[in-house]
Amino acid sequence: MERPGPSEVTGSDAAGPDPQLAATMGFTGFGKKARTFDLEAMFEQTRRTAVERSRKTLEAREKEEEMNREKELRRQNEDIEPTSSGSHVVRDCSKSSSRDTSSSESEESSGSSDDELIGPPLPLKMMKEPSNRIEEDILGPLPPPLYEEVEEDDDDDGDSEEEENPVQKIPDSHEITLKHGTKTVSALGLDPSGARLVTGGYDYDVKFWDFAGMDASFKAFRSLQPCECHQIKSLQYSNTGDMILVVSGSSQAKVIDRDGFEVMECIKGDQYIVDMANTKGHTAMLHTGSWHPKIKGEFMTCSNDATVRTWEVENPRKQRSVFKPRTMQGKKVIPTTCTYSRDGNLIAAACQNGSIQIWDRNLTVHPKFHYKQAHDPGTDTSCVAFSYDGNVLASRGGDDTLKLWDIRQFNKPLFSASGLPTLFPMTDCCFSPDDKLIVTGTSVQRGCGSGKLVFFERRTFQRVYEIDITDASVVRCLWHPKLNQIMVGTGNGLAKVYYDPNKSQRGAKLCVVKTQRKAKQAETLTQDYIITPHALPMFREPRQRSTRKQLEKDRLDPLKSHKPEPPVAGPGRGGRVGTHGGTLSSYIVKNIALDKTDDSNPREAILRHAKAAEDNPYWVSPAYSKTQPKTMFAQVESDDEEAKNEPEWKKRKI
């Protein structure tokens, strides 16, 4: 038996699929032939259509160029004689007609080649030579040189735009100034959505600014002192925006909510324990703090007790883990700043000996990276910040430098920039939202110039741009990725917001358009009056309209019309206790009371008992009976006897 060919049909195929078999297999399409595809034919057809489209676009561009040339020639020949202009036109028309004929011939040749290719694909052996010939015929000539020059110019412009993009994206065309106070603004924090800004300073105050609720007066809607008499060193919103970490000069960090109410306060450790890992909290002044970028409720603080501690909001009575920076000799060293990496797996800290140490978040014993001479020893590195891609670390040193480090090769800095003076231990740096720029501020002495905001390009670390902020130091800077606005805290108590109406979103743009509210007339009138509580109607007593009616009311009142009870004489009656009752105290008062006889002469009152004391001595005389000498009194003569014994000469004188 021979197999049926592809064109032949068997009896079973003609009858169609077996319904019993379809019911057994569970699907209805059983028995149909699968559809086959010829990939080579599909690719060839796709190639031909692409070539046709490219040819059409080239023809359209040639026609546009011819039209433009004709227009230019007409403009140039307006002042020339009509004969010459006519000859030029004839020449142009002849050129265009020749081009049209050539294009029509090429179309016919291409059409003939296309007609030859219609039908099923040829075998591979037979397609080798014709395919090469077809490609040579259909692809045609290259684009004109004028088009190439235009493309090259466009590419050059695109490259130049890309090179200028980082600087052009800086939103510095407009600014607003928020008056925090008169002292240094040492902390800035902006929530993830960009709706609220918090500022803290050396005046112990934390102020809340709501961009959507402010008007052109730019006033804070709330001000408080969460840490009493301690300077605010760091403020940061959590990744969810519902809590704010407040780090001050005390040893206890605080977490407050969006409205300023306290959520938790870290416990203070025992300062008399030598090993800081055995205490439950910090024992010395804090420097800074940071929220975990991924885990809600976890944050980190560093302190003068030479530790970096991680905390959880749910457990304020003890830290989660303790990292102890050490020198190469194993001695303690104080961390001055710390931060999380963008993914939260690494913890970086800069220390007073100039080193930068990076730990794995889950391994607290030994640092993963340790560079011992990142900055000059003895200077306070004020900030370390990770880039958005997580591969680069920027450090702002107290030695007036800004350095860039690659985490993957942490053996030397990638770039270093000097000549950036700093006078504050919290001068920070940050990356732009597109990771192409690095921003930091400079400090100046009072009256010696103006503080600047300096921009460095990350790829080359060139100083590409700078902004003069004010006649004081620039302490804090923050570039929000969603708003595309730059917040700056200065040394004279100002917080400035830089934005661009076209490049920035929301934020300062919301409050600038609102006019300043005018004080209401009713409010100005009531300010002149001092209202005492008893002058209000709710506290005022009702006026008495008539005395007679009031007396009649009092007569009906059982309490006011009750007759006072007379004093009780005797033992008492009716539930009232008498003055001399049956108690022991009343008996003593009644029977053994002291004699209240009034003795006008105290000497006579004492001598009244002299005879009884002499007859029956009881207290003093028996004690001195044996040792008391006998009394001998001098005899006193009377006046008559003295007169008798006077001499005669005295009597004569008298």
TrEMBL record:
SUPFAM superfamilies in alphabetical order: WD40 repeat-like
InterPro entries (alphabetical): WD40/YVTN_repeat-like_dom_sf (IPR015943), WD40_repeat_dom_sf (IPR036322), WD40_rpt (IPR001680), WD_repeat_GAD-1 (IPR051858)
PROSITE patterns: WD_REPEATS_2 (PS50082), WD_REPEATS_REGION (PS50294)
WD repeat feature ranges: 178-210, 279-321, 384-408
Residue ranges with Acidic residues bias: 105-117, 148-165
Entry's family note: Belongs to the WD repeat GAD-1 family.
Protein name: WD repeat-containing protein 70
